[in-house]
Amino acid sequence: MLVLVSVYAFDDVRRELLVVWPAVVGWGAQVVGQLRPAVSAEQAGRLSGELTRLSQTLWDSYVRPADGGDKDEQERWGAVLDAVQKPNLPDTSGQLLVPYDPVEEGAHRLGRVLHGIGDAALTGVVVDEVRCEVDAVRRAGLGDLSGRGVQAASLDRVDASPVQVSAADQVLRADPFGGGLLSVAVDPAAACVAAAHWLAAAAVVAGEESGNSAAGVFAEADDIEAVSVEVPALVVGRIVDDGVSPRQVVMDLLRAAVAAGAGVVVDPEAVAADHARIQSLVARLPAGQQAEVLASEPVRTTLLDPRRPARDLLEHLLDGLTSCRLLLAEYADEGFDDESEAQPSGKGEALTDLARPEEPEFVASVRQQAQQSANRLS
């Protein structure tokens, strides 16, 4: 899984240590501090490298929260800052004590680089920088994506802060078709939970309009134009028909994708059933075609891209919302007797919200349906 986090670099011309980090759009940047002439380019390179690795480890602990053992969060972050200032050093026999906690060990590695440079002022600057990054990770875990915490919006966390779910829900309340979710600082997994809730609401309304089941609207929309079918139908089916919470549906999909990325199959029975289904279909084909079809129809262990599961799921869910809108437009067109009324701006152009009186009614119905089932988000 690609993790985009703070990256540190050394400007050899200005003798500056720099940091850049991913934002919702583009990257933010800042000068960390000035390096004195005695610091070699090699030392500066090692310093920037260890800072980058520590940032990756810190944000990895956000993406995959783990048990901190006997330490509470405050003690753990305090140990990181202490390690930067007073790192474990090799003893007289060359042996080195290495902590089990990868975050703490990353801090010790950084501290050993600073110890080798021997610049107290630089150590103070780096400690302040690490404190800033630690604080961003801590706040992101609480649902605050302000400042450096915006990096969380670029990561695929297998968890969803209630604060972030609420923030995504407010975005969808303003625009039930989800256009704003990709341009705000919201954790992708939390955005998926809120989007799953609103997708279920939109599918119920679209199903009533089209005389279809909520989970069946996506296959019908796919007959109009190519849209995502399998993932939206599965999500809506589990929420509407099985009564599973949006959070549970999203977490199940994300955990299966993350596990698949690590070479682990979460649901071997489902994979075996999928394999049996493919074999049954292929068995009906001529022998000469079977090998080709088997190669083009691999057994899947996850419906999502394991490299970016939360963002991939969010794209499927937003596509599902578009499918509901597409189906509404199709049925609305059938209600027009004059084709020119259905295409007021010229052939082939999409109708605007103002030109189609049915769409605001659809949006209002989706909002009402989402509000009636709002308890499933808690």
Properties at a glance:
14 helices, 3 strands, 3-stranded antiparallel beta sheet, single chain, 378 residues, mainly alpha
Radius of gyration based on Cα positions: 26 Å
Beta-strand content: 5-15%
Overall helicity: 55-70%
Number of helices: 14
Uncertain segments: 336-355
What best-fitting shape do the alpha-carbon axes yield? elongated
Structural class: mainly alpha
Question: What is the count of β-strands?
Answer: 3
The major pleated sheet works out as: 3 strands, antiparallel
Walk across the major sheet and give the strand order: 1-2-3
Structure description:
The protein has 14 helices and three strands. The protein has 378 residues and is mostly helical. A three-stranded antiparallel β-sheet has the order 1-2-3. A hairpin with a 4-residue loop joins strand 2 and strand 3. The radius of gyration is 26 Å and the shape is elongated. The relative contact order is 0.10. Residues 336-355 have low confidence and may be disordered.
Chain-wise SSE layout:
Blueprint: E1 7-11, E2 16-22, E3 27-34, H1 41-63, H2 73-85, H3 102-117, H4 120-141, H5 162-174, H6 188-210, H7 217-222, H8 230-241, H9 246-261, H10 268-283, H11 287-296, H12 309-334, H13 339-342, H14 358-372
Helix pairs in contact: 1-3, 1-4, 2-3, 2-4, 5-6, 6-8, 6-9, 6-12, 6-14, 8-12, 10-11
